[in-house]
Amino acid sequence: MTKFPCPHCNKLTISLKQKYLAGKWFNIHCDACLGRSCAQPIILALMSFLYVWNVFYFSVVAYLERSWYFVGILIVLWLILDYFCHYIPLQRMKSPNKKPPVAADDEPADLVFAQPPAQPPTHTSSLNKEISAEQSKKLEDS
Ligand SMILES: [Zn+2]
To answer: What is the separation, in whole angstroms, between the first and last Cα of the chain?
Structure first.
């Protein structure tokens, strides 16, 4: 049976059925390295658009022309699109348990932002001393 290479470990562990399901937005789990992978999403979105266009266009044309001929074209195009699903390259997915590195970088910034700016207590006390010295000078002058 035809096997496809896993994008994580490059071993031939992906079966034809898994590759076909990847073309239907399913995730693939590698038996050897337990890595998750999926079909390239941009190409998959384009393929989905072609599926929808195929069904809508040829069913409307078949209805308007009152002909089963266009339903046959719809089915043949559907099978051709299914065939090309096997050629969509697989892409690595991150493990759902691991946190992305971006979130880990945000945490210290949030903590620093949440804390009030640290002020040395001597500053305010020295300011108070200056004020009290000025007040005592004014009192002495008057
Ligand atoms: Zn693998």
So the answer is: 105
- What is the Å distance from ligand 1's center to 91 Cα? 12
Radius of gyration of the CA atoms of the chain, in A:
34
Domain count, the chain: 1
Give 65-92 pLDDT, tens digit per residue.
999 999 999 999 999 999 998 889 999 9
Kindly state whether residue 54 falls inside one of the protein's structural domains. yes
DSSP per-residue letters across 44-80: HHHHHHHHHHHHHHHHHHHHHHT-THHHHHHHHHHHH
**Cα 105 to ligand 1 centre (Å):** 29
Which domain does 19 fall in, by range? 3-91
